[in-house]
Design goal:
There is one protein chain. By secondary structure, this protein is mainly α. It has one domain (2-73). Helix content is 69%, strand content 0%. It is globular, with a radius of gyration of 13 Å. It starts with a helix and ends with a helix. The mean pLDDT is 82. GO terms for molecular function: lyase activity.
Length: 74
Amino acid sequence: MAHETRSLHNLLHSSALATALVPEMGYQKVADIVRDKHQPSRSFMDTLEQEGLMTKEQAEDCLQRSVARDNSIE
């Protein structure tokens, strides 16, 4: 369980989540956020919210849709 918790923390604080936002926000906007705004000391969702770009709930919706798209490909 400790590994799962640590893995989730690492994921939420990385910019890997950015790929799920591309369909919603567009590649260039997401790339700009990753390059200019995101700091590893805060979660990517916190970055979106603090920059006024998206609420955590909206970001979670994007992630869920991304996972659903990936699962439908199989």
